[in-house]
Specification:
Layout: H1 8-18, E1 30-35, E2 40-45, H2 59-78, E3 81-87, E4 96-104, H3 115-122, H4 124-129, H5 144-155, E5 160-162, H6 166-185, H7 191-195, E6 197-198, H8 201-205, E7 210-211, E8 218-221, E9 240-242, E10 248-254, H9 259-278, E11 282-285, H10 293-299, E12 308-316, H11 329-332, E13 333-335
Helix pairs in contact: 1-2, 2-3, 2-9, 5-9
Length: 336
């Protein structure tokens, strides 16, 4: 692995990789600032992109920023850098979520990458291969060895990934349906979703949000938990189809439920998703039942669940979704 000069282009490339991460409704609630003299890249929350109704505590916002932070770590390792991360480095500045020291190895040092750096760099191709899929998956199971790899990925970020048994799976699916019903009864419940969906000509020029070409088909049959981003709004040529009858879900837990835990959950989430991508799996996130405090409590397995559920993942073998738009790097990166 060779080390590239840490110039403006290199920093911009790192941020472009970081921002390929998933975020709630693809709102991309992050900003970056590179302090040249210190070789430090700062990650900040962009609260103008927060979900007022469905994420009032900014839990999902922090998870999205944590996912971007993990991508940054992977991209830095791939570039021959050693990313040293400090989470929430300034108690007086709550929008400052992380400071990443981009330590460089000089060629004359003959630096051998650490095992952790090699493992991170291995995931780099998956950053731009991973796309949320709202399409049907096969009913075939995810092999035990792949599940074990995903559990290890979560554990390395201080989180836990579990795969619900049959009875718990039914409970989670019922909670998803409950969340959907609440949206129907409360029109205001779709406020955030409608703000961040892009229909018609707007979808072709969008730099954020979920464009209509990424909605996927409507579910005609099956039990896969899917959020219908269109709602009752017409979308041309969308169609409907049958989804899997035995969806494979995974729950991501953290021991605590504070700002640090949410940032760790985001890193764990992206670590799992990139590992899943390298294993040939497609994936989607199902946060719907986690947006209501009472439903979120019920998602946890009362027998084996420990801590707090931060995300529900739908995994399986099937088509990867289309790439969704990203804001230009110049709009999210400042260099001083």
């Amino acid at each position: 692995m060779t080390t590239r000069e840490l110039d403006t282009k290199t920093v911009a490339d790192l941020v472009a990789d970081a921002t390929a991460a998933p975020s709630m409704h693809n709102a991309q609630p992050w900003r970056f600032r590179f302090v040249t003299d210190e070789r430090v890249l700062l990650l900040r929350a962009d609260l103008d992109r927060a979900m007022r109704r469905t994420d009032p505590t900014h839990r999902a916002l922090h998870i999205g920023c944590g996912a971007a932070l993990f991508n940054l770590r992977v991209a830095a390792a791939h570039a021959g850098l050693s990313p040293l991360v400090r989470l929430l480095p300034d108690p007086g500045d709550p929008r400052l979520l992380a400071a990443v020291q981009l330590a460089a190895a000089h060629p004359e040092d003959h630096k051998v990458p650490t095992v952790d750096e090699q493992d991170l760099a291995r995931l780099y191709p998956a950053i731009h291969q991973r796309h949320t899929s709202r399409y049907p998956f096969d009913d075939r199971d995810v092999p035990d060895d792949v599940r074990a790899r995903l559990r290890v990925a979560a554990a390395r970020e201080d989180a836990e990934l579990t795969f619900p048994g049959a009875w718990h799976l039914d409970t989670v699916l019922e909670l998803v349906r409950d969340a959907e019903s609440r949206d129907i009864l409360d029109p205001g419940g779709r406020e955030d979703l409608e703000r961040w969906t892009r229909l018609g000509p707007e979808a072709d020029i969008a730099t954020d949000g979920v464009p209509e070409y990424a909605f996927g088909p409507r579910r005609r049959d099956g039990r896969a938990p899917l959020r219908d981003f269109a709602g009752r709004r017409p979308v041309a040529d969308r169609g409907s189809t049958t989804f899997e009858s035995s969806p494979h879900l995974a729950l991501l837990y953290t021991r605590g439920d504070g700002l640090l835990d949410w940032l760790r959950a985001g890193q764990a989430l992206e670590h799992v998703l990139l590992e899943a991508t390298t294993a040939g799996l497609a994936g989607a996130l199902t946060s719907h039942p986690l947006e209501n405090d009472d439903l979120r409590t019920l998602v946890r397995d009362p027998v084996s669940g420990r801590g707090y559920v931060q995300m529900v993942l739908r995994l399986g073998y099937g088509p990867h979704g289309p790439a969704t738009p990203r804001r230009p790097v110049r709009d999210v990166l400042d260099i001083t």
